[in-house]
Amino acid sequence: MANTVSFMTRNFGKYNPSSLDSYEQIGGFSALRKALSMTGEQIADCLAACAVKGRGGAGYDMGKKWRQAREVNQPRKVVICNADEGEPATFKDRTLMENDPFRLIEAMIIAGYSVGAQDGYLYLREEYSHLRPLFQNAIWQVREKGYLGENILGKTGFSYDVHLYSGAGAYVCGEGTALVESMEGKSGRPRMKPPFIKQCGLFHLPTCVNNVESLCLVPSILLDDKKEYLSYGTQNSVGTKMISVAGNVRNPGAFEIPFGVKVRDIIFDLAGGVKNNHEIQLIQFGGASGKIARPEDVLDIPYTYEDLTAAGVGVGSGAILVIDKRTSVLDFLLATQEFFFHESCGQCTPCREGNTQMKLLLEKVMAGMHTGEDLQNMKKIIMIMKNASLCGLGETAQNALSCAMDLFPECFAVKTEGN
Amino acid sequence: MEMVHITINNIPLQVPKGTRVIDAAKKAHIDIPHLCYFPDQAVKAHCRMCVVEVSGNRKLLAACSTIVWEGMEIYTDTQKVRDTQVGVLKMIMANHDQDCLACPRNQNCELQNLCSRFNIQSPKFPNVCKPYPIQDSNPSLVRDLAKCIRCGRCIKACSENQGVSALTYANRSHDLIVTTAYNLPFEQTDCILCGQCSTVCPVGSIVEKDDTQKVWDALHDPQKHVIVQVAPSVRVALGDGFGMDKASIVTGKMVSALRIIGFDKVFDTNFSADVTIMEEGHELLDRLQNHGKLPMITSCSPGWINYIEKHHSGLLEHLSSAKSPQQIFGAISKSYYSKVAGIDPKNIVTVSVMPCVAKKYEAARPEMQVDGIRDVDIVITTRELTKMIKYVGLDFPNLPEGDFDSPLGIGSGAGAIFGATGGVMEAALRTVAEACTGKPLQTLEFEAVRGNEGVKEATIQLGGATVKVAIAHGLKNAETILQNIEDGSADYTFIEIMACPGGCIGGGGQTVNTTFDIKKLRQDSLYEIDENLPYRKSHENPDVIALYRDFLQKPLSETAHHLLHTHYQPQKKATWQNVGE
To answer: If you write DSSP's letter for every residue of B406-450 in order, what string do you get?
Structure first.
């Protein structure tokens, strides 16, 4: 099995990302033409048949998501492309957007058609400001050419526009409801659920939010007459996946892999192995909110949803962060903790106070001053944050620490007397 | 009504569809602990104290934000739930100034109650509370961020009920705070000092400015003749602080308590409310007869005055020039009463007990003095009077019934109902209608102006003329009417506006956690007082008749204008230019 494929990345380097003409010359917008010959239902069915799981991290069935969005009986709906790729070590969406911006816009139009929306918003993270001119230009060209506007490509009744929206730099705005709040001009803090944004989202309209990679798969899948996509992967992890490998590797980068490639091959072949052949300390999957593993537990398993879950980690955002032994486990954990301490929105107690307390406790552990009671408190706070936080940020913020306490108990050994 | 079958801790229960878990639990006699949840506000689900376990759910669910579903199995008492609640509580405490013994909300604090309930004996987490400067630069409210638990109830009270939105969250994570625009002191922002925030704060983060010591100092000064007036709505709320029914009528006990505390005379703001009606009612007649500015709007509520000055200064001419009952009482106490009692006004200290923190601001306004003598010297709230009564150690519920002193002690039923939304309107109509026709009213109750709708409208016959009136309580409701006046679509003659939802019975100085349900009970108590009084119209109040006969001559007389009327000026709103001023 090849370690990389070009299914959703097949256009990389094939056209000039600033030119719609050059995109059309390589077959651009034929997926939209095909989509408009189908019903919205059929498009959702097509995604469901390919068992596409959302690529933002939660892995929700994409065909089901579009079908549900379609079934919401309201005249006005919204599609949002979540390009707030804020998970540390994750940069697969950036790679897709830099190399193939028109594909994303085409996919957003198809999404709008399938779910019955009038407006699509591209929520681009603040840190990707260099992509703003690229997309402004692309959207302008697409609109000029008539792929956006009234009765697109002569399809009576399908009127749709795409708008570029820039985030302001908060990690939590990658969470769907916080993203919507921030688009409404409010502070980026998650809403309580229900109501779910699929029923009541941006400007109180039914809102269908999709990750960049999820959308970028759509044109390829619609044109995939030979069922190439289904030939990749395993039974439970169908198709291909964009991953980003970072950390102490020689060749960090984003790669499209078929599901099922061994983690070892990803790290040592695609990413070139560890710099200076240092020993790997730990590997984190899915970004800062992801879980960690010792190399011996994961290097020889295939990169699939099921195998990673069985190994105690997960696909998440598609990031793989390799940390070699020059970085101590505790240094890594403190950096992660400081990230969440900085990025918690602060509205719910478990996340606001939990991240504050955990930072203090971790600093105490690092100084070797902690007691058995401190460790008990850490476990308790982990439990509270996981079970009682308002949104996924607080729920997952302690994933790495929680794993580390199990995997590296020696780092938490109590040194002080009298406990 | 469609019912849903659920179990709570294995006890089967039927509740109406759409019920929140927190309310369903109440039916099973279980109080789920909560801090950010407040019955009259939209659910926030921030504090996470109210989590419960629900079968089939991986995470704990917040009981405030979760609606029951058919077959739902709820557990409120598992180890996971309790560990979480205790942990959340300890984390909140760790970011809270724990100087409980010296806190204005000591023994009246929801956080303290929960710590007591869960038997928290030592804080297990290090205190991470940052020092913040206490903001107390205005006469009404004190803000102490070190006590804030970030529940957001004040924010909702300010935005949802009042539409003022002077409070908001700022920053994030550990730096998240509740603050004002540009972190300016309240008085420099859009805040109108209504104090609704202070009535919903579960802890001591926003409280009234405590003026009880000023009162004690005056009472202990042998040179001073210290008199007190009590607003209509205090007597139906004060009992709440002593474990009595939330809307008990405690007029007589209150008078006795004030006398024991040491006031030289105990007078009634209901009396000056009647005087307000005489002045305001005749001002309305004057405007009707002489083509004055209409609609005329009441000016009794100081929070409302701050609102119009800050937010609708173009409408100031619509305000009645009559001072509020508090200030009218003050002005009369330093003139008429001073003469009658033979006491130099400089030696009279006039204290008010008000349901309101904005009254503190009103009393301190530069307009509120006559010939260099302040109308009212010290204002305390219902909450502060409760503290003073406790300070003296009185067994309040068992005090004998006392009577107000003469000559400012008789209030009519019309004055009594000032405390409820629609009350000023009804009181005015009773007097104005009789002044127009010269005949006694058949029915005194103007049912159309009673009730709790946000905006009430009614068409009233005044002699030959038909006039349209409107009543709004809560400034979000008032805003609707004001916009109609501004765009010319309002055809009202007379409008009553009260800043606080429910009127003064829901005022910002009343007992904390006064929900709409409690407000309704207090309204009923006020109407009960009205029904049982010998005089129910302001112009028939014998003390008022004597005041006009012996001193003021007639409503709107020169003396009356000099003492009892005023004018208001535009106030600045929050702008970035204010920063650093």
So the answer is: SSS----HHHHGGGSTTHHHHHHHHHHHHHHHSS--S----GGG-
